[in-house]
Amino acid sequence: MKYKRVLLKLSGEALMGEQQFGIDPARLEIYANEIEMAAQQGIQIAIVIGGGNIFRGLQGASQGMDRVQGDYMGMLATVINSMALQASLKQKGVKTALLSGVYIDRIADSMSANKAIELLEDGHVVIISGGTGNPFFTTDTAAALRGVEIQAEVLLKGTRVDGIYTADPEKDASATKYDQITFEEAYSKQLKVMDLTAFTLCSENKLPILVFDMNKPGNLLAVLKGEAIGTIVTS
Question: Which of 57, 99, 121, 153 could form a Cys-Cys staple with 70, CB 3.0–4.6 A?
Answer without folding.
Answer: 57
